[in-house]
Design goal:
Order of helices and strands: EHHEHEHHHEHHEEH
Helix content: 25-40%
Largest sheet: 6 strands, mixed
Strand content: 5-15%
Number of strands: 6
Amino acid sequence: MKQLILVRHGESEWNKLNLFTGWTDVDLTETGRKEAYEAGKLLKAEGYRPQFCFTSYLKRAVRTLNQVLEAMDMDYLPVEKSWRLNEKSYGAIQGLNKADTAKKYGDDQVLLWRRSFDVQPPALDMHDERSPRMDPRYAELSDSEIPLTESLKDTIARLMPYYKEVILPSFDKYDTVLVVAHGNSLRGIVKELRGMSNEEIIKFNIPTAVPYVFTFDDQMKLVSDEFLGDPEVIAAKMQSVANQGKSK
């Protein structure tokens, strides 16, 4: 049996402020650090032993992974970072308050920008200070690789080749792999693994710092998937994510 553990980062500073974050590199809150540490304690208590880890270039994911591994006493694990695991780019609405944006454009429009499969938010200019082109960590990316806005479809298009060419082959060597990333990049993986429709993925929310375990047979055929933890707490956290983009 093989296991893929997905963990969305803990609460970030901009999650707390209900701002569109995207590729903006914000840190975890104290609550987020505690959430991440508790996720690690839960994984350890349930007997999970990852052997290799993947995360994005964004500190809220990197530091969540660090907290998870510290709680598991597994700080020594090898980690690979990739920009392809970054959050979806929210383009020109990055930094805006979600509720205020919903008041201006309507709940339905903001839902499409946040959760739809193929609707992009308004794009950034390449030389906007919020553009990844202005960030030295992305200096080696070509202009065509720099996302100035993304739909979930776009996020999957830059994510899944990495999943198929790097993460999936890691199971040739390891039985358990841990991926700590972001709500939309992880939704892309989940959509593919569960064969979810474009409509189903709109309503699917991933809570912060809750381990989501996929179990496969030795041929990598999906056997089961489950969130770890109290179902009522998980449901409440999912609903909280869903409510972020509403005007009221």
